[in-house]
Amino acid sequence: MNDIVEGLWQAARLVVTLDPGLAEITLRSLQVTVTATVIASAIGLPMGAWIAVNRFRLRRFAIAILNALMGLPPVVVGLIVYVLLSRSGPLGVLGLLFTPTAMIIAQVIIITPIIASISHQAIRELWADYHDLLISLHATRAQRIKTLLWDGRRALMTASLAGFGRAIGEVGAIMIVGGNIDHATRVLTTAIALETGKGDFGLALALGFVLIALAIAVNLALHMLSGTERGSRW
Amino acid sequence: MVSAILPLVLEDVELRRQGKRILGPVSLTLEGEGITVVMGPNGAGKTSLLRAMHGLERINRGRAVWQGGAEDVRARQAFVFQTPVLMRRSVLDCIAYPLILDGVARRDARARGEAAAEEVGLHVTLSAPVSVLSGGERQKMALARALIRAPEVLFLDEPCANLDLHSTAEIERVLTAARDRGTRIVMSTHNVGQARRLADDILFLFDGRLIETGSGDAFFAGPGTPEARAHINGDLLP
Amino acid sequence: MMFKTAFAALSALWLATAAGAEELKMAVTTSFANSGLAEVLLPEIQKDTGIEVQLLVVGTGQALKLGEAGDVDAVLVHAKAAEEAFVEAGNATHRREIMYNDFVVVGPAGDPAGAKAAGSASEAFALIEEAQAPFVSRGDDSGTHKAELKIWASAGIEPAGDWYKAVGQGMGAALNTAAGMDAYIFADRASWLNFDNKAGLDLLFQGDPALFNQYAYLPVNPEKHAHVKADAAKALEDWLVSDKAKGLIEGYQIGGQKLFHFNAEAM
Q1: Keywords, A to Z (chain B) (predicted)?
Q2: CATH for A2-224, among 2.60.40.150, 1.10.3720.10, 1.10.260.40, 1.10.150.240?
Q3: Interface pTM (ipTM) of the complex?
């Protein structure tokens, strides 16, 4: 209990004094996870919509795989990316291991299935509503997907936010592929793991609270942005 | 003016769903001008017939052939569903949507959308979300959306179900005006009075089969089948 | 508008973290990183050589693996036999001893096994085994784990049973576990002194030469991995054996205790 109070107090102190170390790892957390979320959304949202709209032979299979991939243990993803990016691995020449890029790659792999799966659910419902109209209006495949993505944008934002939430709090994969290098690949979650290892629960908790606050702030900011949109247009 | 995509010829069209025959076999030719009203009791296959003509249903047997032949004939038709499809957009964007698909610039599409709303007598805040509209207003929105591409053939499935007299009259006015401009209209209705007012031709369906066809005047003067007679008179069939 | 904002924010994030100096990746053991010595040395290294040393903190086993795969430019670990095999296999050009610190036996302040009175490290271990007192082992193939196993072997004991708990984690996590269970644990002095969650634990046994812990520097062989920064690794080695490094290493203290003993020899 004492640790929690101490952690809250320390978190407040770190934030109020704009601790440069904290600012650095917080920014890097954001940089890695926001980038991963944008990339994963660019892949996952259209993929979810495409699966919802098209009937193809392995559709059920694809959906089952997608749902299974949602539960992929990050450590396994981390290991696979690690082995691929290692200098002795197939993509070793790129020299990406232990860089923020490697962390982004791992996070993209972790959250793309989540974003695709949630967007598939949302788009499927919308598609059920729109199906007859879009077919009747002779909309092309691309037009159908574009329309569904646009009209389902708020549900899709939720999908992206779910991916963001999972990525920002993820530690297993990015620890392995990033290496938790100070001033290079250390982010909030790996710093928390490090401080816990040092037995400094106060600082670890403080960083944890900052992480929670960050996740809430990003969610609120996006909902406010989409809120203004609703006020004026929809 | 007769539409270039007509005639539409249905040859022994049959629809089956889950092993059950829901329509057909039906053979007919749709051509000329005017309003064709599809009548018949619930479950007779009115909606299925309209959807099959428009190309929304998979036909299990027989075929439906438009004069135009190519698949893009559907873009020259329009369909108003019994329950209007509400897109998650503003009223104006819903109406203008078909033009956006056609690649019309947003500004022009909206201007034409406003004109279409005016034409169907839809006097609401066009920037409001379409979900706030009443039942009658939604039906007018759907009608405006269907008319905005100036379709050559217009299908309507029970366009006035659940509407009050005033809304019904307005929609009938719009439909008559469209017919007079040369739009070929095929609609289903339960409302015998409406059929009497609008029908140039009648298609009477019973149990998935087309059991009576003819001009509206002849049909209402003396229906040839007991089923049609009972339907017009409002009798309860055993 | 939303996308534009997001894009602007994203670009700002990227720009905020642009890198500058020459970077060198070095795999080091948790015990070295936890000592806090790195925080003293790295800024000085950057100042003197312009090299930004990026530390990958892992166990000795993984550190050597990273070197073998060519994923780091140099390795600083403490497991002599494994290091020599590493050089033997051509993974490093050579092995250079830099400094040593020592291991300690930590346990519940009450010392139920009486390890405090032991005459040697192996006797202390034998007493713990005799008392069947709970003992937390790293169990992760790290240098510390290997050193611990060596002492069990010298005591003629094969540790096994309910009382022997191999956690398979780093030093900090193992110390946390020991603190939570009031168990004995074999730790390096630096990690122990820097550990904040001591709870009911106390330092019980130290000073046996068998507990000395030699750190050696291994530059990864550029003949095996052409991309490694051999020049930077050489510059770092020269700095690590310099008089300046000696002063910093010898002068490093935690709670008034000297941690490391510099013993690099001129080549």
Answers
A1: ATP-binding, Nucleotide-binding
A2: 1.10.3720.10
A3: 0.90
